């Protein structure tokens, strides 16, 4: 009868294994932590900076034409940006605003701010019967920003919204989907914060109380055209796309929010007849934008046709 011996051996092995496992579990979970010798300081690791391999990028998107509707020369305040609504348009430069009639370019009102309080007004827009302007202390650092609010008829200053120190210098704002959208510019040279350059320019989404909720950066195809400055104007189109200008190039970059990640998608470019700077959609007209040509101190009205692209 040789068969019982292997059975007894297997049974004994199983009991021994169970006892060892029980002992191991007991050792893994002591009632309190036991003293141990400290580990020696590890040798310093070295991770030197290097030129990283570029991330893959899509091809440059299509470019489209716009139509210049009218140009108003010799507008004194046409140094930073323009806006429009109804029968009027506005021009802005640093500490001054002007309101003009679209019909004949006649000045209707003007405002000059205290230069100890107002440093660099940039792009403005008309929102809910208020003229709202991006403002910063450019070219001074550290960068601080605010939104300055004016009566669109008299141009009287009615409110300030201090944003303090952000991720750059505020250049433009817009309202969409119950949120404020703002770009904070960064620069390579004059006005730049040490340790940051134009690549750090950031689109920030705020709630209606100006609390930051999300942010995105710009793709390399646009950053190359910003350099060495940044974005001076922008706003959401009625097609759900974001239109953005640089500082000097006569073109708008059309973007969409990404499906994933934090880099905006460059989906088109539109050639325009003004050189960057601050501009705004005229929400009372059909796809009209109002910008400036700084060399001639002109305000330029432009029609942007619907773009034949899919998002």
Outline:
With 311 residues, the protein is mainly beta. It has 2 helices and 21 strands. It has a single domain, classed as TolB, C-terminal domain (Neuraminidase, 6 Propeller), CATH 2.120.10.30.
Largest beta sheet: strand ordering: 1-18-17-16-15
Q: How would a crystallographer describe the biggest sheet? A: 5 strands, mixed
Return residue spans where pLDDT drops below 50 for at least 5 consecutive residues: 7-16
CATH topology: Neuraminidase
What structural category characterises the helix and strand content? mainly beta
Which architecture does the CATH hierarchy give at level 2?
6 Propeller
Number of E-type strands: 21
Radius of gyration: 30 Å
Share of helical residues: 10-25%
Tell me the name of the CATH class. Mainly Beta
Distance between the termini: 82 Å
Mean pLDDT: 92
| N-to-C series of helices and strands | HEEEEEEEEEEEEEEHEEEEEEE
- How many domains, as an integer? 1
Share of residues in strands: 35-45%
User: How many individual helices?
Assistant: 2
